[in-house]
Amino acid sequence: MFDVKLIGGALGAELRGVDLTKDLSTSVLSEIRKLLIKHEVIFFRDQDISHIQHKQMADFFGPLQTHPAYGTIKDFPEIQILESTAEKPTKIEEWHTDMTFRKHPPMGSILRSKVCPPSGGDTLWSSMTAAYNALSSPMKDLLKNLTAEHDFSYGFKESLAEPGGKERLRDAVLQNPPVIHPVIRKHPESGKSVIFVNSLFTTKIIELPRNESDAILKFLHEHIKTPEFTCRFSWKPNSIAFWDNRSTQHKPVNDYFPAHRMLERIAIDGDKPY
Q1: Choosing from 98, 151, 221, 244, which is the catalytic residue?
Q2: Can 187 be counted among the known catalytic residues?
Q3: How many domains does the chain have?
Q4: Using one digit for the tens of pLDDT, what is the confidence trace for 189-202?
Q5: What's the CATH code of the domain at 98?
Q6: Spatial distance between the Cα atoms of 63 and 268, rounded to a whole number of angstroms
Q7: pLDDT digits over 7-44, tens only?
Q8: pTM, entire model
Q9: Looking at the domain assignment, is residue 273 inside a domain?
């Protein structure tokens, strides 16, 4: 059905031979879901989809989430604007899984590019499946029953520190108190174990004293950056990335300042990690 070009050894595939601007059949969307679970992040090129088509594609995979801090497209509250300009450069530098500060973090995100810098601005993804599989058996045993706190305020501490930041994000902070997730979760569709802590939102491991928690989290945050677990995608206008938020982390490469970069994202509701 698709021409599948692998991007990295651990994860990532570009799907060719599909036009996302056309009405997509259930069989096509079901195949996209299978390939997403298999490759963890999938990419499409030259897809000049409308906002309605972006939302319709995402709707197939589940209810859609909104974001408490990002601007959105008029009449489309589910489509979040991720933009960096010379006047207001991006603050997101960390490897992360989207919105783990929620009880039900997104199962996936569909991100399309609108404005790309002339060079730079790539995004990296890392497979938390490959990262888990590379751990030693004793480390897997240590982590399997641990839980960790994830906190919106920690992830957006720079925005909160800006003039007026606390006032602007007051409701978001109140509506998103810290939550607890397992350090190692089971993927609900593949059944595979994955690492589920990230440096943007994870603050501590509940069962450990602070010094031990800090040491374990530091190790895991460095471990997931291992190049062999990753793939890299170079954006062009109308490119689309669809990633499994349950089994990946990603990081923008902010090497294009002061150029303009704008992408639009929809996050699809997920389950409670277990």
Answers
A1: 98
A2: no
A3: 1
A4: 999 999 999 999 99
A5: 3.60.130.10
A6: 6
A7: 999 999 999 999 999 999 999 999 999 999 999 999 99
A8: 0.95
A9: no
- Find out whether 111 and 263 touch, Cβ atoms under 8 Å: yes
**122 within a domain of the structure (yes/no):** yes
List, in sequence order, the alpha helices (H) in the chain: 26-39, 51-59, 128-133, 137-143, 152-155, 157-161, 165-168, 170-175, 210-223
Residue among 39, 67, 96, 181 flagged as catalytic: 96
Q: Is 98 a catalytic residue?
A: yes
Active site residue 3: no
By residue range, what is the domain housing residue 237?
3-268
Spacing of C-alpha 98 from chain mean position: 4
Residue 19 sits at the vertex; the CA angle it makes with 14 and 21, to the nearest 5 degrees, is 125
The answer to whether the bond into 177 is cis (omega within 30° of 0) is no
Domain assignment present for residue 274? The answer is no
33 is catalytic: no
Hunting for tokens 């509940």 — which residue is that?
A: 206
Q: Which of 150, 221, 246, 250 is catalytic?
A: 250
